[in-house]
Amino acid sequence: MAKVAINLSTGSLQQEEVIVGIDLGTTNSLVAYIHPEDKKPIAINDQGRGTIVPSVVHFTQQGETIVGTEAKDYLTTDPANTFYSVKRLLGKSYKDLGEHKDYYGYKIIDDDSEGLVKIRAKDKFYSPIELSAEILKELRERAEHSLKTPVNRAVITVPAYFNDSQRQATRDAGKLAGLEVLRIVNEPTAAALAYGIGIDPNEEKTVAVYDLGGGTFDISILSIHQGIFEVLSTHGDTYLGGDDFDRAIINYWIQENQLVADTVHQDKQLSQELRLKAEEAKKALSQQQLYVSKVGESIECGITRHKFEELIAPIVARTMESCKQAMADAKLQPEQIDAVIMVGGSTRVPLVYEAVSTFFGKPANNSLNPDEVVALGAAIQADILAGNRKDILLLDVTPLTLGIETMGGLMDPIIPRNSKIPTKAGRQYTTSVDGQVNMKISVYQGERDVVKENRKLAEFDLKGIPAMPAGFPKVDVNFILNADGILKVEAIELRSGVRQEVEVKPQYGLTDQQVEQMLMDSITHAKEDVATRMQIEARTTAEQMLYQVERFLEKNGQHLTEEEINLTRENVQQLKDVLAAGGDKDAIYAAVDRLEEQTSPFAERVMQISIKQAMAGKKIE
Question: What is the layout of strands, in order, in the sheet containing 204-212?
Answer without folding.
Answer: 228-237, 217-225, 204-212, 339-343
